[in-house]
Structure formats: structure tokens, C-alpha cells
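Q: Please design a sequence for this.
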């Protein structure tokens, strides 16, 4: 099939949404696409499409470019997303096929607009293997969702690891122990979010998208489809970090984003959220003295035997003009993907 590559035009947005539905079997409305590609604190976005001889859309590759931070300096970070090609339009699985040409065009556009950009994306294992074979993807992190409830009971090797983590935490924070942290529901406009970003995030030792209040408001508070809950992590009544959760259709809660002080792990943060969710709204009466079971809380950073058997999502660097192997590997969170 003969295809041409070029920018998506405004009048083609409905056709893009139809292509997304056909390829991923998930709906994407024009409003959600506008939120995703055009709103929020970003440096820009790229949306390239492949058209067949009749002008119909048969492929797409996009990127969302955000201001990032690395060792106190601004670093443009581009999340590559919505890479899709109709089966009959794929051609060869090499640089000359539709997929290869789309990715080459995306690389060129990102390098032209944002020199030095760090591009990254999240692919299923099969698309990842294709991109890696073509020299486009470099594995950074395997992402598997795990539940707190699936952690082994105390007494096994996991208990020793937890004990070591607690000892490290106590060394860093004096008498601090994980159970001294409390998660408190917050509003998106709470001033602590700006203060904590300035304290913990702005001087990050690894590349990360800037988690400023403007970013949090766009990514979570103004999401067109999903509702998220921000929490402040407090120790001795002082806000020291934050997490964001989303309640999933099955009633469980997923920790999708966090900004944590040194020594506090996402597992400890998830446990603090779980304790808060489990707390009764009022003192139970004798007739209702049995408390409900603890809510199920999940995160990428909860590693269990169950999660190890899941097929991973591969967080990877996407080649633009060079690999950023000289920099500390970025650490991603569930909220960085399009899943949520």
C-alpha cells in the first residue's frame, strides 16, 4: 500500500478517533484527544498520520512534550503515544514500512523542535520487541501492577527486605517509622503541592516530568473521563509528600502518582493510603462493631509473586537523535501511561 506521512489536520480528528477505536478497541472522544494533545503545561505536541492513496487515515504516531527536570536544569521530555497502524497498511517490519516511516518522521520532528529531548513511551511486550529490534526502543523499566494484599506475610524473605527498608528509613529520619506517616485527603489547590515540588522535585537526580500544580491540575483534576484523589502524606502534622490515587471499577484503589521524600517508598505510601481508607467514618456501635476488610491498593512498585507472572508494560526510551545513556535512568509511574 502506498502511503504518505504528514501532520494530522483538524478536520481529521474524528477519523483519528475511529482509527484509535479500530486498532486498540478502546474509545477516544475528540474532547479527550483535545485534552491530551492541546491542553495543560506543555512545550508542544506532535501528531503525525499515514494516509493511503484515497486520503484515509491508516496510521498515527504522536508525542506530548512536557517540561522536565534533571539536576536542577530544564529538560524537554516527550511522551510518545498512540502509535498505531492498520494491519493491511503495515507493509514490511523495517524502516521502509508504514510503522518505520511514521517513527522516522516523529524522530525528525522531535529533534527539529526540541534539540536534546528525552523521548519515552510505554509499549506492550510485542510492540516493544518490534521497536527494540528496529533500534527505536531501549528498555528502562518493566511495569507490572501489584496489590498490597499479595505481599507475603511477615517471616519470609520479603519480611527481611521490609525490615531492611525500615532500618534505612529510620537511619534517614531518626525515629521515623513507616507507620508514623498518615495520608490525608486534600484539594488540588492546596499550597503544599507547590511547596513540595520546590522541595523534593525541582532538584531531581533523575529525569522526570515537572509535577507542578499546573501539571497536576491538567493531568488529574481536569481529566475528562476519570476522577482522581490527591493525598498529602503527613508526619507529625507536617506535609512531607503527596500521592494521587484513582478508584477503579472493581472498588480497588491504584496509586498512580507520587512525590515522596528520601527514604519513603511507594509501598509505605500505599500502606498509609490504605490505613486512611480503612479508618471508620465514626466510632462503630456495638451492632456494627465489625469493620469492613481493608481496601485493595495497587501500584507498580508493589512487587509480588502474582505481579511477577503478569505480562509487563515496557517503559522505554525512544531514540530521537541519541540515547540518553549518560543520564540517570528516569523512573516512571502509572500516571505516566495512557492506561489511567
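A: Design:
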Amino acid at each position: 500500500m502506498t502511503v504518505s506521512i504528514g501532520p494530522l489536520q483538524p478536520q481529521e480528528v474524528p477519523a483519528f478517533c475511529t482509527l484509535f477505536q479500530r486498532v486498540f478497541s478502546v474509545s477516544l472522544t475528540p474532547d479527550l484527544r483535545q485534552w491530551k494533545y492541546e491542553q495543560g503545561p506543555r512545550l508542544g505536541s506532535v501528531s503525525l498520520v499515514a494516509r493511503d492513496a484515497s486520503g484515509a487515515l491508516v496510521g498515527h504516531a504522536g508525542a506530548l512534550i512536557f517540561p522536565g527536570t534533571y539536576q536542577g536544569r530544564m529538560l524537554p521530555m516527550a511522551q510518545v503515544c498512540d502509535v498505531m497502524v492498520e494491519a493491511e497498511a503495515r507493509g514490511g517490519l523495517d524502516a521502509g514500512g508504514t510503522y518505520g516511516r511514521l517513527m522516522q518522521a516523529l524522530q525528525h520532528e522531535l529533534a527539529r523542535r526540541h534539540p536534546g529531548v528525552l523521548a519515552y513511551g510505554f509499549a506492550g511486550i510485542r510492540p516493544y520487541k518490534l521497536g527494540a529490534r528496529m533500534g527505536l526502543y531501549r528498555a528502562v523499566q518493566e511495569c507490572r501492577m501489584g496489590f498490597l494484599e499479595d505481599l507475603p506475610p511477615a517471616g519470609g524473605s520479603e519480611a527481611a527486605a521490609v525490615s531492611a527498608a525500615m532500618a534505612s528509613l529510620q537511619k534517614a529520619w531518626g525515629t521515623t517509622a513507616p507507620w508514623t506517616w498518615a495520608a490525608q485527603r486534600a484539594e488540588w489547590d492546596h499550597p503544599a503541592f507547590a511547596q513540595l515540588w520546590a522541595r523534593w522535585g525541582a532538584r531531581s537526580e533523575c529525569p522526570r516530568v515537572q509535577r507542578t500544580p499546573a501539571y497536576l491540575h491538567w493531568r488529574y483534576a481536569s481529566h475528562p473521563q476519570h476522577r482522581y484523589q490527591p493525598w498529602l502524606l503527613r508526619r507529625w502534622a507536617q506535609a512531607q509528600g503527596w500521592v494521587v490515587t484513582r478508584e477503579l471499577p472493581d472498588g480497588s484503589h491504584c496509586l498512580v502518582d507520587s512525590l515522596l521524600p528520601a527514604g519513603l517508598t511507594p509501598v509505605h505510601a500505599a500502606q498509609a493510603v490504605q490505613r486512611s481508607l480503612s479508618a471508620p467514618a465514626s466510632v462503630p456501635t456495638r451492632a456494627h462493631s465489625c469493620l469492613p476488610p481493608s481496601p485493595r491498593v495497587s501500584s507498580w512498585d508493589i512487587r509480588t509473586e502474582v505481579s511477577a507472572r503478569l505480562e509487563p508494560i515496557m517503559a522505554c526510551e525512544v531514540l530521537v537523535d541519541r540515547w540518553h545513556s549518560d543520564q540517570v535512568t528516569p523512573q516512571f509511574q502509572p500516571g505516566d501511561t495512557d492506561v489511567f
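Q: Thanks. Anything notable?
A: The domain at 146-281+288-300 is CATH 3.40.630 (Aminopeptidase). The first strand starts at residue 4 and ends at 7.
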